[in-house]
Amino acid sequence: MDCGHGQRDKYGWAVALIVIFCILMLIALFVTLFCWLFNRSADKNQKKELLTNAGLSPAPSQYLGSNETFDKPFRISFWVRV
How far is CA 47 from CA 22, 35, 55, 72, in A? Predict the structure, then answer.
C-alpha cells in the first residue's frame, strides 16, 4: 500500500483552499488598484475642471511667500524667523 497517496488525499483539500484564497486575494488586489486609479483620474479631471471654471490655471502654484506655514495650527513649524 502506498502511504504517500493517503497523505496527498488528506491534505489536498487544504492546499486547494490555500490556492483559492490566494487567487481571490489577487483578484481583490487588482480590483482595488483599478478602482483607486480610476478615482484618481476622475479626481484630477474634476480638479482641473473646477480650477478652469474658477478662472485659475490648473498648473500647481509656484508661490514663494514667507517661510511660515499655517496649514495646521497644532503643527510645529521649523521655519522660525529670528
Answer: 37, 18, 12, 22
Beta-carbon count within 10 A of 48 CB: 13
Do 58 and 47 touch, CB atoms closer than 8 A?
yes
Give tens-digit pLDDT for 8-52. 678 888 999 999 999 999 999 999 999 999 999 999 998 888 888
* Cell of residue 25, nine digits: 486575494
| Among the listed residues 78, 59, 58, 60, the one whose alpha carbon sits nearest the alpha carbon of residue 68 | 78
Contact at 8 Å (CB) between 58 and 48? yes
d(CA 5, CA 3): 5
CA angle 27, 43, 57 (to 5 degrees): 150
Q: Is the dihedral of CA 16, 17, 20, 26 positive or negative?
A: negative
